[in-house]
Amino acid sequence: MTTTEHPGSGAGLAGANATESARQGLSSRRAATGAADSERIATVVGAALEGIRAAIRDHRVGYAEFDAFKRWLIDVSDTGEWPLFLDVYLEFEVERVAADSQSGSTGTILGPFWLDGQAQLTSPATLPMRDDEPGTPFVLAGQVRGTDGTPLAGATVDIWHTDDEGWYSGFAEKPPAGNLRGVVTCDDEGRFEIRTRKPAPYTIPLDGPTGKLTLAAGWSPWRPAHLHLLVAAPGHRTVTTQLFFTGDEYLDSDVASATKPDLVLDPQPTGNGAEIRSDYDFVLEPE
Ligand code: MBD
Ligand code: FE
Known about the structure:
oxidoreductase, 287 residues, binds 3-methylcatechol, 1_2-CTD_multi_dom, Intradiol_dOase_core, metal-binding, 6-stranded mixed beta sheet, Protocatechuate 3,4-Dioxygenase, subunit A, disordered N terminus, binds fe (iii) ion
């Protein structure tokens, strides 16, 4: 797949919608720690600013570059790309810090494209899709357990991913609202079975400031194909993760630095036509 095969339009929509969900508290499901006392602000913001000042000094940044930087920041705001830029270039470091004090299944970043209020389904479930939804039929199945091995009845798997062309519903014109998104309630033994389509690799919008910066630096704008998951159960910490696919050409060059070896699936044919399936269990730590 080349970048030109991925229609570049709709980038503005992507950025703006992600801004709106961020504003409305998309991240409010993460516990607010309120750790913003003045000493903490001075330490963290001071270190961040000093990093930028060091880049200016060390690399002899001039007024033309400083002005270009100002214009770029204004563009990020105007296009609504703050969630995209921050989740691509910074969220993975925050997630690594968080992961240090977590047990249970391996997590990774949430990214900017989760949406609230999606189809509520019961396992075995088929995600909402078009009659002629393109792509390889794919089944994800598994069990949600606690760290002590107990199956977690009432667990839910909130899943969202791109279609076979790399588009997210809600953030692109083409897929209808709710396409390939759903919240699946597991059975009494925490088991789930979800029928969908295998997603495609995804390029961040190339016509906005995040994509333009990425290309201007000569970096790859691609993410490997991935499923996003929020796996939750009463009394347990929600696991935020993504699952990738073995053999994906972008596994080692994810623009969002979100891949981890534990998160790579190797789906196998089920014998039912072109359908493939992966089994993946989740372990949640008590809250
Ligand atoms: C995505 O699809 C994504 O998952 C992340 C983390 C950033 C940009 C686009
Ligand atoms: Fe994504």
